[in-house]
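Crash report, auto-generated. Payload:
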Amino acid sequence: MSAVRNVQVRLRNRPQGWPQLTDFDIVESSLPQVGDGELLLRHRWLSLDPYMRGRMNDAPSYVPPVALGDVMCGEVIAEVLESNNERFAVGDRVYGDLGWQQYSVRHGKTVRKVDPRVPESANLGAVGMPGVTACVGLLVIGQTQAGQTVVVSGAMGAVGSMVGQIAKIKGCRAVGIAGGPEKCRIVTAELGFDACIDYKAADFREQLKAATPQGVDVYFDNVGGEISDTLLTRMNDFGRVSVCGLISHYNETEAYRMKNMRLILVKRLKMQGFIVFDHRDYYPTALKELAQWVAEGKIRYRETIAEGLRAAPEAFIGMLRGANIGKQLVRL
Amino acid sequence: MSAVRNVQVRLRNRPQGWPQLTDFDIVESSLPQVGDGELLLRHRWLSLDPYMRGRMNDAPSYVPPVALGDVMCGEVIAEVLESNNERFAVGDRVYGDLGWQQYSVRHGKTVRKVDPRVPESANLGAVGMPGVTACVGLLVIGQTQAGQTVVVSGAMGAVGSMVGQIAKIKGCRAVGIAGGPEKCRIVTAELGFDACIDYKAADFREQLKAATPQGVDVYFDNVGGEISDTLLTRMNDFGRVSVCGLISHYNETEAYRMKNMRLILVKRLKMQGFIVFDHRDYYPTALKELAQWVAEGKIRYRETIAEGLRAAPEAFIGMLRGANIGKQLVRL
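Recovered output after restart:
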């Protein structure tokens, strides 16, 4: 056993609807010895993401759920404290799915070193899974072409904020959908989208129409539900809907029922769900391009930072309710 | 003016819900002179298809609606009675979108000669638009591979019956969905599908599950609505839904609301609407292959034949209600 004491956040209950603080346990534990090829890692940054809500359910999904009593899953940037692997030196910064905890012992092959040109936390956002997700949905699934109109929901989120900025780099009109005037202001004034619409506004449909005078060629869907249903009415013929997330569904006990599905045929739309992990081959290309854009200052990002592992459950619940601005992180 | 008297079926009213006989006018009229490059055509076979119901509405769709007072649109096999076009001889059989009428005068470039190896009426079905539609949805949109499971709704219809037979030729498991035990019997016993499920059966879901032990890779959707919603629950990861028709929607005044849309993401499905007319380049390839299969006896088809143009409205309404077995035709 290592002398280091670990702290972990574990799943206590499977929530019905919105998660609560009592659905998590915060537990002290010990760490195993560092074996051959393994590393002792001190976690520095933990990413909090909407998909984690899905992992708290027992329903079949694209990955198995977190078991009751297990450490919550999550991407982490960590520092190597001890190394029994010649590919890693003490002090290296690495990325891995290491979970909601302060330390871990992992084999070197389960983590990768991060690009030193990029700020550490950005490896969990702009130059991490959310950035690659934006590239896959926009370019691979969405087949976005210069001159087209891209709409993205959750525009102020870690993925959505990247979608619009990459769309702009690629020569598209970028329209965001976000919750509340402050987020909408940041999306246009700071992130450079052409427009952003508050989905809470009473005249959402009219605003959407005004913001997409040429219709919509690609809708990057992070939310599902009624917003997606409305978007179908604005799609151009042969438009693409990249279905990336369903944040509006995660905490609903009854699914929203789509009424505009006939438009899939009438407009010959393609609606396709995707998960970034299915596109492993595309990661190196995307990460290299994203790191370059960040290094050149072409991509801006906001972060909301919670301090300390014990703050993670509350920060997670807040994120699901839209309290964060940009990428939600925990500094450990 | 030609001496020939024409009879036409024109659209009188736009139906709300199910069309009625009183929505059509049957009118005698004269024909224009046959100009340069033009043909006088005697119509021999008229095709009746579900998409025509959509054209009776004023709602925006992929093609403009039939105007009130205009001849109903429809594909026809005709005989050349007079020719002012060197590419056509008297007696040639041609295919064209010539409408619900007994005669027409058209320029030669708006029709094409049909394959003489194939029975005349089959050029409106197996070796016509329905056959090409089946190929596009199954092979181009659905990317069907040998060994996979294909499910098709409207399995006894002109398109659906081709989908399952082509799936079998391509080495797939073919499962049909049809209305009533007699249609289901024909789909398996005559058309050679592996299974066929009656959507009117109380245990439809259980039958579907039993008929697709390996799940569903391609769902060829001719109906939309609740059947499609149920199919989503049987799709395999990365499955494709080719949306070809929405017969269940055409006569409903309120759209069915899909509740299983989250499965698009969870299973990374692709749902894509298509219209055969968008795939003009693919026609010659498909027609050649289809004619070959029919000539070799690899494709079987049923026809329901109404006699005379005046019977067309009633036959059309019957087809929408599922009274036909196989391709619905009118012999003129």
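Post-recovery validation: Chain B touches chain A at residues 60-62, 224, 228, 237, 243-246, 249, 255-262, 264-275, 278 (CB under 8 Å).
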